[in-house]
Amino acid sequence: MTEVSARPVGALPSRFSRDPKASRSSGSRAAALLLAATVLAIVWANSPWAHTYSEFWDTDVALSFGEYRAEMSVKHLVNDGLMAFFFFIVGLEVKSEFVIGELTDRARAAVPVVAAIAGLIVPAVIFLAFNPSGENAQAWGVVISTDTAFLVGALAVVKPKFPARLRIFLLTLAVVDDVGALAAIALFYTDDLRLPPLGVAVVLIVALACVRRLPALRGPAYAVLGFALWIALYLAHVHPTLAGVAVAVLIPVFTPERRRVEQTVDLVRAFRQSPNPHYARAVTRGLRESISINERLQTAVGPYVSFVVLPIFALANAGVRLTGETLGTAMTSPLTWGVVAGLVVGKFVGITGATALMSVTGWGQLAPGLSLRRVAGGAALSGIGFTISLFIVDVAITDPARQDQARVGVLIASVLAFTLGWALFRITDAISPPEPVGLTLVRPVDAERDHVRGHPNAPLVLVEYGDFECPFCSRATGAIDEVRAHFGDDLLYVWRHFPLARAHPRSFDAARACEGAAMQGRFFDMARQLFAHQDDLEWSDMYRYAVAIGLDIERFDQDVRVHASKVLNRVRDDAQDAESMDLNSTPTFFVNGKRHRGPWDAASLIRALEAGRPPR
Length: 616
What we know:
Elements: H1 20-45, H2 50-57, E1 60-65, E2 68-73, H3 74-100, H4 106-130, H5 134-137, H6 148-158, H7 164-188, H8 195-210, H9 218-235, H10 242-250, H11 258-273, H12 277-290, H13 293-317, H14 324-330, H15 334-361, H16 372-381, H17 387-396, H18 400-431, E3 451-453, E4 460-466, H19 471-487, E5 491-497, H20 507-518, H21 523-532, H22 539-548, H23 553-562, H24 565-580, E6 588-591, E7 594-595, H25 602-611
Parallel strand pairs: 4-5
Antiparallel strand pairs: 1-2, 3-5, 4-6, 6-7
Helix pairs in contact: 1-6, 1-13, 3-7, 3-10, 3-13, 4-7, 4-15, 6-7, 8-9, 9-10, 11-12, 14-18, 15-16, 15-18, 16-18, 17-18, 19-25, 20-21, 20-23, 20-24
C-alpha cells in the first residue's frame, strides 16, 4: 500500500495539481504575444524608422569552425538557430503522440501524413497554372510550406472548441510539411550541397541514436551532439532546423515504469530515515529517470519557445515593406496571385481532399471528435506560409521587384488563410458544435451491473477504468482506500475494465478471471490478488488465487472457460465504452461523471471530489 504522507489533504505543491485551464490560458498568452510581435514588425517595417528594421536584422554574425567560416545575418540566426528549438519541441510532441499517444493507431497517423503530402503537391500545381514558365515558375516552392509557428499561434488565437486532437493532427501534418519543404530546398534550391559536412551529419545522427544506451549523462550528450549536427547541416547547406527534428525523433519516450517508480519510493523512504548526500543524489536521479527525457524536455524547454523564440521569430520575419507602388504592381501580377491561390486554395483543397479520400476509402481514420469540417478549418489556417516561403522568395527570384510581388502574395495569403480559417471554425462550431469526446461518462453508473463499493445513493461517485496488469492501477488501489476512508458513506467507487492488451498481454485474461470471481460475489477480493501478483497472471495462477479467496473452483472453471461468453461480453462492454470515449491510458478516473485530469494520488482525487460535491 502507498505510504500516506503527513501533509494535509489539499496541501500538495501546485506543480502537481496544474489546472488544465491554466495551460489553456498560457497558450492564449503565448498566442497574444506572437500576434503583438507580428503587428509590431509590420508597423516597424513601414514606419519612418523602417531602415533600422532591415539594418538590425541584416547585421552579420560570423561563426568559424576549423577551415569552415560561416556568416549569417541576425535574421538568419533566428530562423536557422532559434527556430531549431521550436522544431525540436514540435518533434518531441509528435514523437510522443506516435509512441504513446493519439497516433499509436497507424490508421489515424496515416491521415495527416498523406494530407501533408497532398498539401505540398496541390499548391505547387495551382501556382504553376498561374505561372507556367519563365523565372516566375521557378518560385513554385514559395507555396508548398506551412509556417508551423504561425499555424500554432493562429490556432491559439482562433480558439476552436476542443482543439486538442486538431492540434495534434496539424502538428503532425506540419512536421511532414516542413520536412518536405526543406527537402525541396535542398534538392531544387541549393546549388552547392557540400558532401563532407553532410557525411559528418550522418555520423552524428548515428551517434545520437546510440545515446539512449549510455548509463549516464544522456542529456549533455544529446545537447552536444545536437549542436554539432546543427553546425554540420548548416555547413552542408541543408536547412539546419532539421537538426531539431532529427534530435527530437531520436530521443526516447516511454510511459513510467513501475520498477523505477518503486525503486524511487524506496529511496525516498531511506532518505527520510537517514538524510545524506548519497541518498539525495539517488532520489534526484530516480525521480528524473522515472519520466522519459522527452516529457522532461517538453516541460523544460516548451515555455521558452512559446514566450521567447516565437515572438522573436515573428518580429524578425513579419516586417514586410508595403508601399503604394509595391501594392499597385502586385495587384496585377500573376506571381502575386499564384502565391495567394497556391497557399490559400491549394493548401485547403489538398489537405481537406486528401483527408476526405483517406476517410472514405478506409485507408485511414480520424480520431473521435475530429470531423472533416474541423480538418477543413485547420487546412485553411495551413495557408499561412511565412518563413520558408519568404526564404524561397530570396533564393528562387533574382529580380527585386518580383521579390516584392511574391512577398506581398505571401502576406495577403497569410491574412486570407487566417480569416478563412477563423470563419470556418466560427460557422461550423455554430451550425454543428463539436461533441467533446471522453470528457463525460458515456454510460451512467448502474449499481446492479457495475462493480461498486459504497452506498448506491452516495452523493459522490468515482469511476475508474483500469487494467489489472497496469502497475499504476495497482498503485492507485492504495489511494482509493484512502479516498474511501476520507469520504465514508458519501462515496460510491466503481471499477470498469479497460484491458490494454497491446501493452499488457495478460490483462484481458485477468479481467475475465475477476469476472468469474464476481459470479460468486468476490470481485474485489480477486482484484486484490491480481494486483498483488501482477508478474504472475498465467491461467494456472488464476486458479491459485481463486483457491486463496475461497471460490468454488468447479463453478469458477465453468464460468471462465466452459460458459465464458457472459464474462467475456462483460469485459468487452466496459472496454468498448472506454474506446468510444477514446481513452488511451490507465488508470482513467471520472468524478461525478466528468473526466478527471491530472494526478490521481489520494489528495488530488479528494480535492476533485470535494470540488464536484453537489450543494446540500
